[in-house]
Design a protein that fits this description.
single chain, 151 residues, mainly alpha, 7 helices
């Protein structure tokens, strides 16, 4: 006998948890050198943004208060132009303009750090506090045990 499946309910086995760590597809940002990785990651972030490079350059110019051209963006994203690395303060501004957590996470890929949405911060802080609470409770139990042994 064939069972009838409820069409109003999603298949629970197909559910995937939301991705907390925003990342680009690895094949799209892979490079043999760290400078190449920066270039490919910048290029991918600008593609994902959806605006033209002229529009991104204009927004970055406003954000920085200095003139940034499309040519500058092209140079920063070009693996062939190694001498044209993006400066730190411009990179921070570009990340802000693009609102790209993926960009930062790709740069942090070889570290033990990750960029998360601020909305998850209270959950993480709570978990850290729970771990500290367990440690303190363990220490209290140890002291109670030692005090009972001294009687």
């Amino acid at each position: 006998m064939r069972t009838i499946r409820c069409q109003q309910t999603d298949d629970l086995l197909n559910w995937q948890p939301p991705q907390v760590e925003a990342r680009f597809e690895p094949a799209r940002v892979r490079s043999a050198t760290p400078s190449g990785k920066v270039c490919r990651t910048l290029s991918e972030a600008m593609k994902k943004d959806g605006r033209s490079r002229e529009e991104i350059a204009a927004a970055l110019s406003v954000h920085l208060g200095e003139s940034i051209s499309r040519d500058s963006l092209d140079a920063w994203a070009s693996e062939a132009r190694e001498a044209s690395n993006i400066s730190g303060y411009r990179l921070i501004s570009l990340i802000s303009v693009l609102k790209s957590k993926e960009l930062l996470n790709e740069f942090l890929a070889r570290t033990d750090m990750v960029v998360i949405d601020r909305k998850y911060l209270p959950l993480i802080e709570r978990q850290v506090m729970e771990e500290q609470k367990k440690l303190i409770q363990k220490m209290i139990r140890q002291i109670d045990y030692e005090m009972r042994g001294q009687k």
